[in-house]
Amino acid sequence: MNPILLSVIAAGGYAAAAAIEARHIRDDRPDRISAFVSVMILALTCHLWVVLASLGRVEGAFTVSLIATLSLSAWMIGLVALGLRLRQQQGILLAPLLAAVAVIAFGSGFDTMAGRSVTSNLGLASHIVLSLASFSVLFVAGVQSLLLGWQNRALKRHRFSAIAGFPSLRRMEVLLFDLLTAGWLLLSAALVIGWIFVDDLLAQHLLHKTVLSGLAWAMFSALLTGRRVLGWRGATATAWTLAGFGVLALGTLGSKIMLELVLDRI
C-alpha cells in the first residue's frame, strides 16, 4: 500500500486516540476504552507498515534514515501508550504523547532521506531494537516527570484548578518509577548485547554513543537506588529523569543527526 496513505491513516488514528483521552480522561466506560483500543490498533498497524517500508537494503545490510529511526521510536511510544491505557494508568499523560506521535507518524510517510547502513547480524539487530525500546520508554518517563513536576508545583502553590484532570500524586509517582524501571532494564539489556556483538566501536562510529548510553544508565541506576534507599521523589526525581534522558537522547539521536546531517556519513 501507499506509505503516504498509511501514514495519514496512522496519524488520524493517533489523533483520534488523543482526542478520546483528552475528552474522557476520568471516564473508563467500556465503550470508550474499546474505541481507544480500536483506533490505536489501526494506527499502530499502519504505522508499522510505513516503518518497515522505509527500510532499505544495500549489500545484505539494512539501511535506516534519521526519520525512519524517529518513526520507529514513535511507534514504540504508541505501543507503550496502549499498554498504559490497558493498565488504566493513563492519567493526563497520553493525550499530548499521542498528539506528538501523530505528527511523527504523518511525516514518516514522506521520508526521502537516504539511510545509513546497519548490519543484518541478529545480535546487533537485537541491540538496536532494545536501544530504541529503552529510548521510547524513557521518553515517556521524561514526559511523565514533567507532568509530575507541574503537579507538585501546583499543589505547593494551591493552584488546584491547574491539575484538575490529574490522578493522585502517589499514582503519578508510581507510574513514573514503573516506566523508569522498565526503561532501565531495556537499556541494560541493550548495553550488554551491544558489548557482546559490537566488534569495533571506533570503526563503527559508536564510541560516543556507547559512552553516553553508559552514562545515562549510571544516572538512571543512581535515581532508582536513591528512590529505594533515600526515598527520592518530587523535584529530585524529575531533575534526575530529565538529565538522564537528555544524555541518552544525545547518544541515541544526537549521534545519528551528527553522522547523517552534519558529517554526511551515510
Overall description:
By secondary structure, the protein is mainly alpha-helical. It has 2 domains: 1-111, Four Helix Bundle (Hemerythrin (Met), subunit A); 119-266, no CATH class. 74% of the residues lie in helices and 4% in strands. It is built from 8 helices and 3 strands. The chain has helices spanning 3-23, 30-53, 66-86, 94-108, 122-156, 169-197, 207-230, 234-262; strands at 56-58, 61-64, 116-118. Strands 1-2-3 form a 3-stranded antiparallel sheet. Helix 1 (3-23) runs antiparallel to helix 4, helix 6 (169-197) packs antiparallel against helix 7 (207-230) and helix 7 packs antiparallel against helix 8 (234-262). The longest helix is centred in the middle third of the chain and has 35 residues, at 122-156.
Keywords summarizing the entry:
single chain, Four Helix Bundle (Hemerythrin (Met), subunit A), 74% helix, three-stranded antiparallel sheet, mainly alpha, 3 strands, 266 residues
Radius of gyration: 19 Å
Oligomer type: single chain
Structural class: mainly alpha
Q: Name the shape in a single word.
A: flat
Give the overall average pLDDT: 81
- Report helical residue fraction: over 70%
Q: How are the strands of the largest sheet arranged?
A: 1-2-3
Strand % is: under 5%
Number of alpha- plus pi-helical segments: 8
Distance between the termini: 27 Å
Task: Return the string of H and E elements.
Answer: HHEEHHEHHHH
* Main beta sheet strand tally, sense and closure: 3 strands, antiparallel
Low-confidence stretches: none
Number of strands: 3
Number of domains: 2
